[in-house]
Design a protein that fits this description.
Distance between the termini: 26 Å
Bound molecules: stearoyl-coenzyme A, zinc ion
Strand order of the largest sheet: 1-2
Number of helices: 15
Radius of gyration: 20 Å
Number of domains: 1
Helix content: 55-70%
Shape: globular
Low-confidence stretches: 1-10, 13-17
Mean pLDDT: 93
Strand content: under 5%
Largest sheet: 2 strands, antiparallel
Length: 333
């Protein structure tokens, strides 16, 4: 069996810390779903997205040529914007809102929502909906970035075409009541477009120009355009590379892999065989802070009293799962 409900329940029972009230979060693989028979629906290109994504990536290439002329403060600022916006995805829409793997107080949720708009990866509500359906129907027609359709589709292609009807059909049956009940998330959804203009493009560009007289071209292309494009690709590599390249120490029957390189760029999100096996673990990895700035951030937030209730799978449950369904790679390293 793949990581179906029975298996997950067993892992849960093995660990008392998980008995906390995560509720019935709809992120567990559903092995009863079958893809529809017959020919697949034809691809329907979304030319607006194809053009905008091409322009964005051309802009990012141009930005690379500007790096040697940029001030050091501007590069440091771009890196800071990268880390903050990435945390809005990893600690925010992913580990907090999609998987409910820890709890966050109002001030932290406000910070993560601001960081999330800076990352411009669709509003939290839409991200969570797509992500829960990705876990529940992983690598089928109902997975928005189904890696069975190849590297390009799971990386960026899925954002350039209309969704497979099964994504929408299955997605509409998900329980999103916890997300709808979060006023900060629904506020962001209401004001999403202006929040992106302000936080993803304007703020990153204005700071270097205003505070240390950086040229307006460099201010716009490096901390805004290049930082945004790198953040998108680092995220997309989780869907593409980490579903294809790496070991499967926890469950060899699923495609997601352990990919330390992806983890490095995605602040800890590349341990993807672990994550699909134990989606409720707040660290998305067995190894704490190793290649995992997001886990360090969440731990710091707990220390400051801004977060609590981290869900962690016990070492014993992890080992039992490795022995039962792993590929044996954990023994060699
Ligand atoms: C981006 C997102 O890049 C990246 C997400 C990556 C996920 C990563 C996962 C890995 C985990 C680890 C995290 C690592 C992080 C590392 C960070 C390090 C830096 N369920 O979508 P529409 C319905 S975004 C239920 O338009 P189309 C719904 O009614 C980049 N229902 O479908 C909806 O209406 P509403 C920037 C669903 O027409 C309606 O259908 N953004 C679901 O097929 C229409 O929805 C862009 O580029 C569902 N799942 O269009 C925009 N889905 O919303 C890209 C849909 O009102 N998107 N419905 O309820 C689009 O333009 C379109 O979505 C489309 C499909 C053209 C792709
Ligand atoms: Zn995945
Ligand atoms: Zn996930």
């Amino acid at each position: 069996t793949r990581n179906g409900n029975a298996v997950v329940e067993k892992d849960l029972l093995n660990h008392e810390d998980l008995a906390g009230d995560r509720g019935m979060i709809d992120d567990i693989f559903d092995e009863t779903y079958r893809e529809k028979e017959g020919p697949k629906p034809p691809l329907r290109y979304v030319w607006r997205n194809i053009i905008l994504m091409s322009l964005l990536h051309l802009g990012a290439l141009f930005a690379l040529t500007l790096i040697p002329s940029a001030k050091i403060q501007t590069l440091a600022w771009a890196l800071l914007c990268f880390v903050v916006s990435a945390l809005g995805i990893t600690a925010g829409s992913h580990r907090l809102w999609s998987h409910r793997s820890y709890k966050a107080t109002l001030p932290l949720r406000i910070f993560l929502t601001i960081a999330n708009s800076m990352a411009f990866q669709n509003d939290i509500y839409e991200w969570v909906r797509d992500h829960r359906v990705h876990h529940k129907f992983s690598e089928t027609d109902a997975d928005p970035h189904n890696a069975m359709r190849g590297f390009f589709f799971s990386h960026i292609g899925w954002l350039l075409v209309r969704k497979h009807p099964d994504v929408i059909e299955k997605g509409q049956k998900l329980d999103l009541s916890d997300i709808k009940a979060d006023k900060v998330v629904m506020f962001q959804r209401k004001y999403y477009k202006p929040s992106v203009v302000l936080l993803c493009f304007t703020l990153p560009a204005v700071v270097p120009w205003y505070f240390w007289d950086e040229s307006i071209i460099i201010s716009f292309f490096i901390p805004a355009i290049l930082r945004y494009t790198v953040g998108l690709n680092a995220t997309w590599l989780v869907n593409s590379a980490a579903h294809m390249f790496g070991n499967r120490p926890y469950d060899q029957n699923i495609n997601p892999r352990e990919n330390p390189l992806v983890s490095l760029g995605a602040l800890g999100e590349g341990f993807h065989n672990y994550h699909h096996t134990f989606p409720y673990d707040y660290s998305t990895s067995e190894f704490g802070w190793r290649f995992n700035l997001t886990t360090a951030f969440i731990d710091l937030m707990c220390l400051l009293g801004l977060a609590s209730d981290r869900k962690k799978v016990s070492k014993e449950a992890i080992l039992a799962r490795k022995m039962r369904t792993g590929d044996g790679s954990h023994k060699s390293g």
